[in-house]
Amino acid sequence: MAWRSTGTSNSELVENMARHGLLKDARVKEAFLNVDRAHYAPEMAYEDAPQPIGYGATISAPHMHATAMENLVDYMVPTANRPAPRVLDIGSGSGYLTHLMAELVGDKGLVVGVEHIKQLKELGEKNMKKSKEGREFVDSGKVKFTVGDGRKGWVEEPREGEEAGGEGWDAIHVGASAKEVHEELLAQLKSPGRLFIPVDDDIGGWDQHVWNIDKDENGKITRTKLFGVRYVPLTDAPKY
Ligand code: SAH
Asked: Membrane-spanning residues where (predicted)?
């Protein structure tokens, strides 16, 4: 799947992903068209491959971001029951996925990117400010980047004007492979809500699978194993 959607421009990359069935949802495709990956990838921005962004981190391949967005989209868009979607992006790295998510959450929505490396938190913010739209997201408070240990999730007060009591997350994306599904993440998931998380398999050490973990409106949890991946691990913060 990797590589074959590579294009010479952002729109060509997006159209190739759509043609290969990686972008099925029109709302997700639109988000990808609106965000130039060149603001986030250090080089060869329209190649469908991961790239190092420093500090042992990588910007994931576009097709991986497409898959994450497709799996989370229904939990990120505003609805009558969810007028102000709240989305958490753990291991925000380059900030690219954080920006794509912000395209979906509507005027009242909130996207928080959590990084345990301060320099990467700053990189995400800097990258987002390269575009007018991205600057507006940060300036309006719709997007926030924070430093923290994503294994504990993140508690963020409702934005000004929003009802209190809605501190949980409608959608949580984890961009690094976890040793386990951390209890804090499940606890912070709203009912309904979805957690998209790569988790190390029990045996083997190197193998990982992405899971959708859904909490329904009654709080019932359902776990669905999606596909195998190779992500960098969710770890203790290194000293830089
Ligand atoms: N989604 C991002 C980055 C993916 S790389 C992108 O595509 O650009 C995974 C990121 O997870 C790295 O930036 C790494 O610093 C971060 N990370 C690893 N362990 C973490 C932890 N415990 N808490 C927060 N971030 C963590």
From this structure: none
> Helix (H, G, I), strand (E, B), or coil: what is residue 41?
coil
pLDDT for 230 equals 87
Respond yes or no: is residue 60 known to be catalytic: yes
CA of 94 to the centre of ligand 1 (A): 9
Q: Which ranges constitute the DSSP H helices of 77-140?
A: 96-102, 118-128, 132-140
Q: How far apart are CA 197 and CA 212, in angstroms?
A: 7
**SS3 at position 211:** strand
CA separation for the pair 18, 29 (Å, rounded): 7
pLDDT digits (tens, 9 = 90+) for 83-136: 999 999 999 999 999 999 999 999 999 999 999 999 999 999 999 999 999 999
Q: Is 123 helix (H, G, I), strand (E, B) or coil?
A: helix
- Pairing mode of beta strands 51-54, 57-59: antiparallel
Residues touching ligand 1 (Cβ under 6 Å) are 57-60, 90-94, 96-97, 114-117, 120, 149-151, 175-176, 232, 234-235
Ligand 1 mean position to 29 CA, how many Å? Answer: 24
Minimum-distance ligand 1 atom for the alpha carbon of 40: 8
Between CA 38 and CA 42 the distance in angstroms is: 7
Q: Which fold has domain 56-229?
A: Rossmann fold (3.40.50)
* Cβ pair 177, 233 in contact under 8 A: yes
CB atoms within 10 A of CB 122: 14
What token pair was written down for 128? 């987002």
Residues with Cβ within 8 Å of 5's Cβ and at least 6 positions away in sequence, in order, are: 13, 16, 17, 19, 20, 22, 48, 62, 63
Rounded Cα–Cα distance for residues 19 and 194 (Å): 27
